[in-house]
Design goal:
It is rod-shaped and about 115 Å long. Helix 1 packs antiparallel against helix 2. The protein has one domain. The protein is built from two helices and two strands. By secondary structure, it is mainly alpha-helical. Strand 1 and strand 2 form a beta hairpin. The protein has a two-stranded antiparallel ribbon.
Length: 184
C-alpha cells in the first residue's frame, strides 16, 4: 500500500511539473512572438521613414536634372520664358510629371513594405496568444491526466467491499489486513 501511495504522489508531482513546463513554454513563445512583433513594427516605421528619405532624394535629383537641362537649353539659345508649348517648357513639364511619379512610386513601395511588417507583427501577436493558450490548456490537461492516474492508483488500494474473508465466487478474497486480492 505504501508503494502505491508513493506512486500516486509521484504521478501527481510529475503531472504538476509537466503542466508547469507546458505553461511556461506557452508563455515563453508568447513573449518571443511579442518581441518579434515589436521588431516588425519598428521595421515598418523604418520602411516608411526610408521611403520619405528616398522620395526627397529623388525629388532633389529631378530638380538637379531640370536645372541642368534648362541650362543646356539656354546654352543652345532656346528662350526659357518663351511659350508654354515650347520644347523647353514641355520638357520641364514632362520632368515634373516624371519626378511626381517616381516620388509616388517610392512612397507606395515603402508603404507596402511597412504594411508587410505590420501584417507580420499582427500574425506573430496572434501566434503568441495561441501558444500561451495552448500551454495553459495543455497544462490543465496534464494536471487532469495526472490526477486521474493518481486516483486510479489510490482506488486500487481500497478494500474490495463487504467481503469478510470467504470466497465470493469470483476467485478473490480478502487478506487479513482487509484489502482485496485476486478475483475478476
Amino acid at each position: 500500500m505504501c508503494y502505491a501511495l508513493i506512486g500516486g504522489g509521484l504521478a501527481v508531482a510529475g503531472a504538476g511539473m509537466a503542466a508547469y513546463g507546458q505553461y511556461k513554454q506557452g508563455q515563453f513563445q508568447k513573449d518571443m512572438s511579442k518581441y518579434q512583433a515589436g521588431l516588425d513594427r519598428q521595421r515598418a516605421g523604418y520602411a516608411q521613414k526610408q521611403g520619405e528619405i528616398e522620395a526627397a532624394a529623388a525629388e532633389k535629383r529631378h530638380g538637379q536634372l531640370v536645372g541642368a537641362g534648362l541650362t543646356a537649353f539656354a546654352g543652345n539659345g532656346v528662350l526659357l520664358e518663351a511659350r508654354p508649348d515650347s520644347a523647353a517648357a514641355l520638357w520641364e513639364v514632362d520632368q515634373a510629371r516624371s519626378a511626381a511619379y517616381d516620388k509616388e512610386l517610392i512612397k507606395t513601395n515603402a508603404e507596402l513594405a511597412a504594411w508587410g511588417f505590420k501584417a507580420n507583427a499582427s500574425m506573430l501577436t496572434a501566434q503568441g496568444s495561441m501558444a500561451a493558450w495552448a500551454g495553459t490548456v495543455g497544462a490543465a490537461g496534464t494536471v487532469l491526466s495526472g490526477s486521474g492516474s493518481a486516483m486510479a492508483t489510490y482506488s486500487s488500494l481500497k478494500p474490495s467491499g463487504g467481503n469478510s474473508g470467504g470466497n465470493s465466487g469470483g476467485g478473490g478474497g480478502v487478506h487479513a489486513d482487509g484489502y482485496g486480492y485476486g478475483g475478476d
